[in-house]
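User: Show me an example of a complex going from sequences to structure tokens.

Assistant: Sure. Here are the input components:
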Amino acid sequence: MSVPQSQSFNHLTIIGLGLIGGSIARAVKAVGLSTHVTAYDASEAVRDRVRELGLADTVAETLEAAVADSDCVILCTPVGTFEGIAQAMAPHLKPGAIVSDVGSTKGSAIAAVAPHLPEQCHLVPAHPVAGTENSGPDAGFATLFKGRWCIVTPPEGADETAVARVCDFWTALGSNVEVMDAQHHDRVLAVTSHIPHLIAYTIVGTASDLEQVTESEVIKFSAGGFRDFTRIAASDPTMWRDVFLNNREAVLEILQRFNEDLTALQRAIRWGDGDALFNLFSRTRHIRRTIIDAGQDTARPDFGRETATPSAAGTE
Amino acid sequence: MSVPQSQSFNHLTIIGLGLIGGSIARAVKAVGLSTHVTAYDASEAVRDRVRELGLADTVAETLEAAVADSDCVILCTPVGTFEGIAQAMAPHLKPGAIVSDVGSTKGSAIAAVAPHLPEQCHLVPAHPVAGTENSGPDAGFATLFKGRWCIVTPPEGADETAVARVCDFWTALGSNVEVMDAQHHDRVLAVTSHIPHLIAYTIVGTASDLEQVTESEVIKFSAGGFRDFTRIAASDPTMWRDVFLNNREAVLEILQRFNEDLTALQRAIRWGDGDALFNLFSRTRHIRRTIIDAGQDTARPDFGRETATPSAAGTE
């Protein structure tokens, strides 16, 4: 699959070579973009690993060198680092350069970066809604974004050509692109990503703190449902700390809703109201089906886990 | 893999041919037990389907016929049906027959079944901690129990030979067996299974009730974490209603702990306490690793979902 050069950037800089940055680097080469990729990471160990893996055409030793002469700089670091990076790189950006990012919170991304950019540069934040529980340059892979959605959140008055180029870039990487304002993005992602992560972290913490149930028991009998939550709760702690600090209002608002709904179920259990439980449990079933029909998850039972798939069984 | 006849039952009856009952029927044949399997389901449509699939040697038309002459009867129906089934089948059980079940709540299973059994029969409840989100006779597969734990919860004074035979049966099906008392089982499973399901049902319900985020947006952007919860929330509504009605005390107790922990995180977010968030998020990571090391989940990122595995990428 090759893409016209016009849809890409001659010189792309990736700041932060974790799961997402490393996957972008791989995807750019895999889909045949003729883009020159420069990589920079604040960690020397990561820079060395990126060289070993051959993920970029150039691995820069400084942020300044990484962004000079770049047509598009994508920040792939935790959102809490954006302001410092924007300040440090701003004087070295080429006029007309596009600055983008992959952060999970967009209102805060704009607030952190926009004030520091030179007038002739264009800020076009984006958020590829994709990932795994693994972190670091080794965790990335070229097809991570394929068939997933990427949300682009241009600030008011953003340059239309710059927005189109960022949209085209993500389309070239295999994503479906949707444009919305940052505030709406933050509310949507609070539901589809931030609250699920917060809840998963919480229940895994609760389980490991019990006096009457040992951790060994939690581990052994986790196939009853708990193990699903541990996957999400194994995600990068720094990234997720920053997400919650930077999407506070939307997260607290959805959390309040969740708490009300959980309290209602708690009450139904206490009073033995089987109908209330059955009604909710029936209603949630169709959402799974819709997600599968929309190509956003596998239809295989148990996510197609190796240990529990019909195809592995002797009788089918 | 064949198993000595002494470890099995000459005549096994499965009541309820859903995911678990259907998987037991398949597994008995797949591992080479020479057991005669009789199946009974209250639904005529399920009985017909069991015949079409050839899951049992005999498909009985009545509960009475199904249990007569059986060495072991396993109840694989929702736990709310146990009392009625026990009452109805008791007069037809063979002296010395073992009655077992696969219910997710064990205290209630004993309370519902034990009072109705003839003196010469043996109650040995069990709970295979395994399953998928799918239901019905077509959802079962022979390897469902392989490498998973099965918890056996004999009531006080249970016949030791009968307990050993039930343990051996599950070992033959590939499970690791652990024996504990019913009360402890109910507390452990509240953590590893019941609360995770309750939370998943809740958040999926909350997400579908929002005014400012459409269901279409929830579906599209579910790859951020939400989609994992929808799998569990697609589980059988009747079974799960009965679980919560029958393990009320343990569920409400763990739920209280979870609520406290979630409130603490909520407060940390409101006050911008990044250290509190980071500390929890770091602490939960090792539990995932331990579960994988214990063979209770796959190490592949994203559960090895087809759409997001390194092996599907072009660059690795």
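The lines above are the inputs; the final block is the predicted structure for all two components together. Residues 182-208 of chain B form the longest helix (27 residues).
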